[in-house]
Amino acid sequence: MRKEKLRALILAQTFLALSLGLIGPIYSIYFEKITNNTALVPILIGIYWVIIGILEPIFGHHIDRIGKAKSYLIGSVTEAAAILLYPIADNVIILLLAQILAAIGYSIQTPASYALMADLTSKKSRGKEMGKIDGMFNIAYGISAIISAGVISLFGFGYLFIISAAVYILSGLVVVRYIYED
């Protein structure tokens, strides 16, 4: 049972990486395109990470009570909603709101993800199993980053964000469906 759940978590993390890999490499380019101001790009990204740093310990505190799988899904849906704001963003305020919403989603999902990894990996082979999860994550991220170039060239930024949001939600659904909590 644990092995099946671990495989499901690897699949969920792969979907997560595919989603993030599609948009991660183009954030700065897209933000600069919308803001028309290079100096605002690192500020928007910095605000995102500071919010995460503040919220992760708070949300992490509540994840055991709410449930890890449920928290993972809530974070996934929140992050996907933020991703869907990007294609309609036409000013700094909407980008900032999207960044805040994305930071909230990430702050919920990431501690839940780590807690699930700790639960589903065995003490004896935790490093090996974590290495598999992270290795698959990095490969998927890299492949989807390459794919993002084609999607942008053929369809533009809007479709890229829609695909990313859909795959992000898929990650959460895999966790809720296959890593239910006993």
General description of the model:
The chain has 182 residues and is an all-alpha fold. The protein has helices at 2-23, 27-35, 40-66, 68-85, 92-120, 126-155, 157-178. α3 (40-66) runs parallel beside α5 (92-120). The radius of gyration is 16 Å and the shape is globular. The model has no long low-confidence stretch (mean pLDDT 93).
Gist of the model:
By secondary structure, this protein is mainly α. Helix content is 86%, strand content 0%.
Highlighted features:
single chain; 182 residues; 7 helices
Shape: globular
Order of helices and strands: HHHHHHH
Strand percentage: under 5%
- The total of helices stands at 7
Class from secondary-structure proportions: mainly alpha
What is the residue-mean pLDDT, rounded to a whole number?
Answer: 93
Ranges where pLDDT stays below 50 over 5 or more residues in a row are none
Q: Major β-sheet, in short?
A: none
Number of strands: 0
Q: What is the CA-CA span between the terminal residues?
A: 11 Å
Helix content: over 70%
Rg on CA atoms, Å: 16 Å
SSE arrangement:
Blueprint: H1 2-23, H2 27-35, H3 40-66, H4 68-85, H5 92-120, H6 126-155, H7 157-178
